[in-house]
Design brief:
It is built from 16 helices and 14 strands. The protein has 478 residues and is of the alpha/beta class. The longest helix has 19 residues. The protein binds nicotinamide-adenine-dinucleotide.
């Protein structure tokens, strides 16, 4: 049984999609595991005038896809309280403070607080400012959880960070990148540490190139309005892809703790090889989906809440390089797109012929699957490693990684409750990645792309293949 934790969670945006689809089911799993038991409460805040009873019903409904233990779900929901709230109204924060304080006493939570921003990003700064001005912070711990997106360019990210920093210290801020909560991504540092031989060949002497693909089969569905303000570059590359690169490419920390991991990762991102505006068209390509071969699916420009002449990209591929000794001249090819033939997030590490010196077949490819298999396989040259018993990679001790892996949000809540920031992004990392992404965005915004340029249910525009062919390489997943 897990060690019980105590806290009051204040979920700003408690009636929303993220809260119901991800946060409540994740908290419920912790409740079932005994990590949350008697000493916790959840306050959901949103504009609508809901009663506690109605809120609790919505919480139970959100769990029904995951469980049928009605009694357990109802016991869980009894810890939930609703507070109607407008983010700009100071009086509402005072009411919120009184409710939280009452729940602290009732559930003996040690006055620990998790403030979760499951609300539109434009409100993040306002809410943080009111938490400070209305004096909501307590003498327990106060952890602020921020959802993505963290800004839309370096300038807005700096503004947001300044606003948050007035109310919370960097140590108290947990910036979510849910890919860092995915089991396989979380496991990579351990996999490297437990396999010195594998780690020893992760460098420019033995690696020909690394490929990271975050592919989705769906289009924008009902999120066209949001997507029109984002695009694949901001939505996937600046955060998730960069963070995955960080985990794969960072040097091994001396000790496996948040501080060392962040120090090393921060150093890696500071070493992103500069990109000039002139290099953008040589190193990055973009695409937007059309209908499919039989004309059944909507092109992006016909999706709900999307402009008919939208130039927003739904696909991006690029070549990222690092300016350090370990990775000099190794291309990290990255790719993310909607309406690809299937959903698959994976990392392909392509070794060169020199690995033979390690008794490993030349041109070995190690593939780490992130999802939908959720960390279930490591393939070496297409063969499931469990069958080949090659000793390039040993499976970690924890067998859980290859079974029903924890959902990312559950895993991230465990970290938040433990005060472990290893799987969250630090401000310095974000600053470096935004600086890099801004060069591409500014260049693209100044040009007129020929969209749409790829059919739905394909691997994206041809230019994504040419990008690698120019270097004598090709996508492993194609
Ligand atoms: P949503 O629109 O479903 O929910 C927004 C919530 O904010 C609702 O509870 C709404 O009542 C509340 N709200 C809106 N205006 C308010 C105001 N003035 N005062 C108080 N409350 C107000 O949005 P969502 O999809 O749940 O997204 C929430 C956040 O999570 C966003 O920052 C989004 O970028 C991020 N996010 C969402 C997802 C997802 O899968 N939904 C994934 C990643 C990140």
């Amino acid at each position: 049984m897990a060690t019980e934790k105590s806290a009051v969670f204040i979920i700003f945006g408690g009636s929303g999609d993220l809260a119901h689809r991800k946060l409540y089911p994740a908290l419920y799993r912790l409740f079932k595991a005994g990590m949350l038991k008697d000493h916790f409460a959840v306050i959901g805040t949103a504009r609508r005038p809901w009663s506690n009873e109605y809120f609790r019903q919505t919480v139970v409904t959100s769990l029904e896809d995951f469980d049928d233990d009605k009694r357990m779900m109802e016991n869980f929901a009894m810890h939930f309280f609703y507070q109607s709230h407008d983010v700009n109204d100071s009086d509402h924060y005072i009411a919120l403070k009184q409710l939280a304080s009452k729940l602290d006493d009732r559930f003996e939570t040690g006055r620990n607080r998790v403030y979760y921003m499951a609300i539109a990003p434009r409100f993040f700064g306002t809410v943080a400012a009111h938490i400070k001005s209305e004096d909501l912070k307590t003498d327990g711990y106060n952890r602020l959880v921020i959802e993505k997106p963290f800004g839309r360019d370096l300038k807005s990210a700096c503004d947001l960070n300044d606003a948050l920093s007035k109310a919370f210290t960097e140590k108290e801020i947990y910036r979510i990148d849910h890919y860092l909560g995915k089991k396989m991504v979380k496991e990579i540092p351990n996999l490297r540490q437990n396999n010195p031989k594998f780690d020893e060949i992760l460098n420019n002497k033995y690696v020909s190139n690394v490929q990271v693909t975050l592919g989705e089969s769906l289009g924008v569905e009902d999120r066209g309005g949001y997507y029109e303000t984002a695009g694949a570059l901001r939505d996937m590359v600046q955060n998730h892809i960069m963070q995955i690169l960080g985990v794969v490419a960072m040097d091994e920390p001396e000790v496996m703790n948040a501080e060392s991991i962040h120090e090393i990762k921060g150093g890696l991102f500071a070493n992103l090889k500069d990109l000039t505006p002139e290099q953008v068209s040589k190193k990055f390509v973009r695409g937007q989906y059309d209908t499919d071969k039989i004309g059944k699916l909507n092109p992006y420009r016909k999706e709900d809440k999307v402009e008919e002449d939208s130039n927003i990209e739904t696909f991006v591929a690029g070549k990222i390089e690092f300016n350090n000794e370990r990775w000099a001249d190794v291309p990290f090819y990255v790719r993310s797109g909607k309406r690809m033939p299937k959903k698959s997030s994976r990392i392909d590490i392509v070794f060169n012929e020199k690995v033979e010196a390690f008794g490993i077949r030349p041109n070995t490819i190690v593939t780490l699957f992130i999802e939908p298999e959720d960390g279930s396989s490591i393939l070496i040259n297409g063969i499931d490693y469990r069958e080949v018993k090659q000793d390039l990679i040993k499976y970690p001790e924890d067998p859980d990684i290859f079974k029903g892996a924890r959902e990312a949000y559950e895993s991230l809540f465990i970290d938040i409750l433990a005060g472990d920031k290893a799987n969250f992004t630090l401000w310095e990392e974000l600053k470096s990645t935004w600086k890099y992404i801004d060069v591409i965005r500014e260049q693209w915004d100044a040009e007129d792309p020929q969209f749409p340029n790829y059919l739905s249910d394909t691997m994206g525009p041809d230019t994504a293949d040419t990008l690698l062919e120019k270097d004598g390489n090709s996508w492993i997943w194609n």
